[in-house]
Amino acid sequence: MVQPLLSSSHMGYGTSSLSKDAREIDILIAHMASKRGQDTRFVVCGHSTGCQDAVWHCKKGKEAGRVCGVILQAPVSDREYAATQPGTAEMLNVAKSLVDGGDKEALMPRSADLAPITASRYLSLNGRLGDDDMFSSDLTDEELRDRLGCVGVPCLIAMSMEDEYVPE
Known about the structure:
The chain has 168 residues and is an alpha/beta fold. The chain has 2 domains: 17-77 and 137-158, no CATH class; 79-126, no CATH class. It has helices at residues 18-36, 51-60, 78-82, 88-100, 119-126, 141-148, and strands at residues 42-47, 67-73, 155-158. A 3-stranded parallel sheet has the order 1-2-3, covered by helices on one side. The mean pLDDT is 95.
């Protein structure tokens, strides 16, 4: 088992993206295959918000063909969590305005998030049908198929007792 430290780990999530994470997972898988043999297959596990990385890699990863299974441990909806926080609606408007104005990589105001976060990442995590919006309870069956249907390998969804950010 290998646990990578992606650019999005810890406080880096706000200036990263699912695409960047998928590229980093590709680098790891390619390296591991070069060491263990080109026929080696891998299982990708995501935890909490990291579940979106596992799904996104299935959809966009160049090395996705080497993945024979996916584990989603405690997938959560960042959007539903953000909706419980004061100021989210206002910050969504700020982020949308920045992105619409062509400044998607601009940093949001400090009050938007604990970590420095770009406008595009804020929308991805907290906007309805943003790239990260994969596990929200209000997604339709069709929206869920569009978001999760790319996982063409066996997938285990493991629920956890409590997520440190989404305990209920």
